[in-house]
C-alpha cells in the first residue's frame, strides 16, 4: 500500500508567519477599501436609517446616493475613506496575524500551513480560530469603526461632523470617554462568528479545490478559484451574521435622534443599548430591518472581498515561495 506523503510545512519570509499574513492582509485591504468605499458609505447610511420597511430598498439607496452628491459632490462618496482605510487595514492585518498565530498554537506551536497554502487543521479548528481572531480584532479596532460610522452618516457641513479620523477619535474621547470609543462592541462581538464561518468554509473549499487540481496535474490554484471561494464563503457567513452589523452601526452613529426632511438623508433614532435597539427595530421595521443595506453590502463586499483575497493570496504566495526561515 502506498504511504501517504506528509505535507511540507510553509516557512516564513519575514521571520514570523503571522506577520507575513498580516502584511498580505493589509495589502488586500488597501486595494479593496479604496475601490469599494462609496458602496460602503451608502450601506452604512441604509443600516442606520429607520425608514419604514415598505419603502423600496433600491429607492432608498438611490435617494441616499443623490443626497450625498447634492450635499458634498462626487468627493462626498469618498467621505470617511481615511477612517475606513485605517479600520480595514488594522482589522485585516490584525485578523490574519491573530488567525495564523492561533492556528499555529493549535498545531502545537508549529506552522499549520503547508507550502501549497492549505491548512493542516480541521473545520472545527478553523471555526474556533476565526472566531477568536475576530473577537480580538473587534476589540482592538472598534474605536476606528465608531469614527468611520459617524463620518459616513454625516455631511461635511453638519455642525457635529468630524474633520477626519484623528479629530473623531479626539472628540469622542473628550465628550464620551472610553465608552464612546467602544460603542457597538457588543453586537460586534456577536458577529465574531462571521470570520469563523467564512474562514471555515474558505479553508475547506481551498483544500478540496487544490486536491482536484492536483489530481489533474495542476499544482496551483488560479485567480478564478480564489474569487469563487472567497465569494461563496463570504455570502455564507454574511447571510447568517449580517444583523449584528446593522445593530453595531445603529449604536455607533452620533448620539441623538435625527429625523431629516431632506430626501435621502438617513433618519436615525437614539438607543440606550443593545436590547433597546433590537426592540425598537423589531417594533418599527420588523425582521427585515435587521437586513437593511444588505443589497449594497453584497455589491460592496463581494467584489471587495474578491480583491482582498486575490491580493492577499498573491502576496502570501510570494512570501511562501521566497521564505528564508523554515517553520
UniProtKB/TrEMBL annotation:
Indicate whether Lyase appears among the record's keywords. no
Q: Which InterPro entries match?
A: MCP, MCP_dom_sf, MCP_transmembrane, SLC25A32-like
- Write out the ranges of the repeats annotated as Solcar: 16-105, 121-208, 221-318
Q: Which gene encodes it?
A: FLX1
A Pfam family annotated for this UniProt entry: Mito_carr
Q: Which family does it belong to?
A: Belongs to the mitochondrial carrier (TC 2.A.29) family.
Enumerate the GO terms in the molecular function aspect.
nucleotide transmembrane transporter activity
Query: What is the scientific name of the source organism?
Result: Coemansia spiralis
Please give an example of a GO cellular component term from this record.
mitochondrial membrane
| Protein's cellular compartments | Mitochondrion membrane
Its membrane topology, per UniProt? Multi-pass membrane protein
**Protein name listed in UniProt:** Mitochondrial FAD carrier protein flx1
The record's SUPFAM superfamilies line, in alphabetical order, gives: Mitochondrial carrier (SSF103506)
Q: What is its main location?
A: mitochondrion
Q: Give the record's keywords alphabetically.
A: Membrane, Mitochondrion, Repeat, Transmembrane, Transmembrane helix, Transport
Cell division keyword on record: no
Amino acid at each position: 500500500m502506498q504511504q501517504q506523503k506528509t505535507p511540507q510545512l510553509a516557512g516564513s519570509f519575514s521571520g514570523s508567519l503571522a506577520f507575513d499574513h498580516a502584511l498580505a492582509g493589509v495589502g488586500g485591504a488597501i486595494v479593496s477599501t479604496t475601490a469599494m468605499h462609496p458602496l460602503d458609505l451608502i450601506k452604512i447610511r441604509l443600516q442606520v436609517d429607520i425608514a419604514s420597511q415598505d419603502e423600496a430598498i433600491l429607492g432608498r439607496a438611490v435617494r441616499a446616493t443623490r443626497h450625498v452628491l447634492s450635499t458634498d459632490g462626487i468627493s462626498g462618496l469618498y467621505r470617511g475613506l481615511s477612517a475606513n482605510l485605517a479600520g480595514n487595514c488594522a482589522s485585516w492585518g490584525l485578523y490574519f496575524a491573530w488567525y495564523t498565530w492561533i492556528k499555529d498554537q493549535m498545531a502545537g506551536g508549529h506552522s499549520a500551513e503547508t507550502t501549497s497554502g492549505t491548512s493542516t487543521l480541521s473545520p472545527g479548528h478553523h471555526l474556533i480560530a476565526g472566531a477568536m481572531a475576530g473577537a480580538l480584532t473587534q476589540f482592538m479596532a472598534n474605536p476606528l469603526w465608531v469614527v468611520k460610522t459617524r463620518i459616513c452618516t454625516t455631511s461635511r457641513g453638519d455642525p457635529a461632523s468630524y474633520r477626519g479620523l484623528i479629530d473623531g477619535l479626539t472628540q469622542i474621547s473628550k465628550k464620551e470617554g472610553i465608552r464612546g470609543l467602544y460603542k457597538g462592541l457588543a453586537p460586534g462581538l456577536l458577529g465574531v462568528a462571521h470570520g469563523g464561518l467564512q474562514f471555515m468554509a474558505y479553508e475547506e473549499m481551498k483544500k478540496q479545490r487544490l486536491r482536484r487540481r492536483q489530481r489533474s496535474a495542476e499544482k496551483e490554484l488560479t485567480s478564478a478559484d480564489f474569487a469563487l471561494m472567497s465569494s461563496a464563503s463570504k455570502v455564507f457567513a454574511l447571510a447568517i451574521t449580517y444583523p449584528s452589523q446593522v445593530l453595531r452601526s445603529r449604536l455607533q452613529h452620533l448620539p441623538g435622534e435625527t429625523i431629516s426632511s431632506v430626501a435621502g438623508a438617513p433618519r436615525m433614532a437614539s438607543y440606550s443599548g443593545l436590547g433597546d435597539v433590537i426592540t425598537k427595530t423589531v417594533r418599527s421595521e420588523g425582521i427585515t430591518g435587521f437586513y437593511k443595506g444588505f443589497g449594497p453590502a453584497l455589491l460592496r463586499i463581494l467584489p471587495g472581498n474578491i480583491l482582498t483575497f486575490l491580493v492577499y493570496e498573491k502576496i502570501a504566495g510570494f512570501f511562501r515561495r521566497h521564505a528564508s526561515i523554515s517553520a
